Structure formats: C-alpha cells, structure tokens
Amino acid sequence: MSIKEKIKSNPKLKQLALNFIMHPVKTRPQWWIRLFQFVYLEKGKGSIIYRSVRKDLPPFNKFKIGKYSVVEDYSCLNNAVGDIIIGDHCRIGLSNTVIGPIEIGDRVNISQNVVLIGLDHVYENVEKTLIEQGITTSKITIGKDTTIGANTVVLSGVNIGEHCFVGAGSVVTKNIPSYSICVGNPAKVIKQYDFNNKEWVRI
C-alpha cells in the first residue's frame, strides 16, 4: 500500500495531512505550501496570473493553465475539491471565481465578475449545519472559442459547447449545445448557427 493510500484509509492521518496542507479556518493552503506553488502548478509558455489573484491551489489536485492565457486581477482560483484545467490563449477576466472541477477549452474569453463553481452543498439533513453535511462535485466543461459575458454564473455539472456566447448576467443551469447563443436566468438558447444556410437562426 502506498503512503497516499495509507493516509486516505486512516481518518485521523488524513485529517492531520489535510490540516498540514490547508488552513482549517481560512480554508486555503497554508503559507508554507503556497511558497512551493511555483513547483507544482503547471503554467504554459507566456501565461500570466496577476499577483492580486487569490490562488487557493493545494497540490493534491491538478492546476494547469495553457500557453499565452491570462488570469486577471482580483480573481480567485480554487482547486481544493477538483482539478482546474485552462486551455491555451484564454482570458479569465477581472474578479472571476473559478472553483473546480472545471475544464476550459482553448481561446475561451470570460468577462468580469463571472462565477464558475463545480460544487454543490449537501443540505438534506436539517439536524446538521450545511458545513457538516459536506459537498458534492460535478465537472464544468467549457468548449473552445466560447465567450461568457459579465456577471454570469455557471453551476456545477454544466457543459457549455464550442463557439457559444453566453449573455451578460445569465445563470447557466443546464447544458448548452455548441454554436449557440444563450441568455437569461435560467439561461435559454435563443439562437443557433445553421451551417447549411451559414447564418444564426433564432430558436
């Protein structure tokens, strides 16, 4: 049995390891773990993560950003409950919140104040607090060449296809097919591209 498997199989050992890596109150990596992020974070050539970005990126899940991609000021990246994969030539706008698990394709443009959250809180047991009941995770996928407008929320488990446009202020609760324009709360597809007639057709 490997060391990793031994830690996972022993609840006390697992909690000790978790507290060593993650601050129990701040719920972010301990300062000594953050010192070594340059070692375990995967950054492509020319990629930029601005200094003001909060990098809640412990080493037990994957973080990868492709070449020539940018994460702008005051955003938060959190892979504590799932991997974050960002493709090439992407732009993560100002004050975005990105919580894994999530995979973002190449050339995706995400505007300001967007929330992408790959987790849900368990709430069914009214005799326990929300925090005591834990979470579930379901991966968000955003296809290549997609643009997401400002102040949009994308919920866990949602798959947004390739070359889509999500209008500003949308709340995306269901999958969006490729080559679609969607808007609203909850977001609905209003146009799709017709390859036969080479035009956007209103739904």
Defining traits:
9-stranded mixed β-sheet, 203 residues, alpha/beta, UDP N-Acetylglucosamine Acyltransferase, domain 1
Low-confidence stretches: none
Largest sheet: 9 strands, mixed
* CATH architecture descriptor name of the largest domain: 3 Solenoid
Rounded Rg: 19 Å
CATH topology of the largest domain: UDP N-Acetylglucosamine Acyltransferase, domain 1
Helix content: 10-25%
Number of strands: 23
Number of domains: 2
Q: What structural class do you assign from the helix and strand content?
A: alpha/beta
Q: Categorize the overall geometry.
A: globular
Order of helices and strands: HHHHEEEEEEEEEEEEEEEEEEEEEEE
Cα-to-Cα separation, first versus last residue: 56 Å
CATH class of the largest domain: Mainly Beta
**What is the name of the CATH superfamily of the largest domain?**
Hexapeptide repeat proteins
Question: Mean pLDDT, as a whole number?
Answer: 93
Instruction: Determine the number of helices (DSSP H or I, runs of at least 4 residues).
Output: 4
Q: How much beta, percentage-wise? A: 25-35%
Strand order of the largest sheet: 2-5-8-11-16-19-21-22-23
